[in-house]
Amino acid sequence: MIITNIESVPNKKIVEHFGIVSGSTVRAKHVGTDILAGVKNFFGGELGGYTDLLNEARQESVERMTKQASWKGANAIINVRFATSSITQGASEIYVYGTAVRVE
After folding, report:
1. pLDDT (tens digit, 9 = 90+) per residue, 62-90?
2. CA 28: distance to chain centroid?
3. What pTM, to 2 d.p., does this model score?
């Protein structure tokens, strides 16, 4: 599956359009991660636990979007965008969406 954030796939022609596809996941923080983040916040530095959590959430969302596009018969997803939203205290949604197409 070709995935791109631009309107087309370079050197390919869009021959079929399947519409919008999306994937999402909601993730909650872990108490242990929160404690370590509090310490890091005091001394400074990257909050690695949160970085890992967000990377996993993005990957899972993309996999779900890709599966949806495959079911429709697409071999590419164009105009891909990510969005995040807070669901509740300590939990966030990662949402990814794009346009499923078939290219040749």
Report:
1. 999 999 999 999 999 999 999 998 887 77
2. 16
3. 0.82
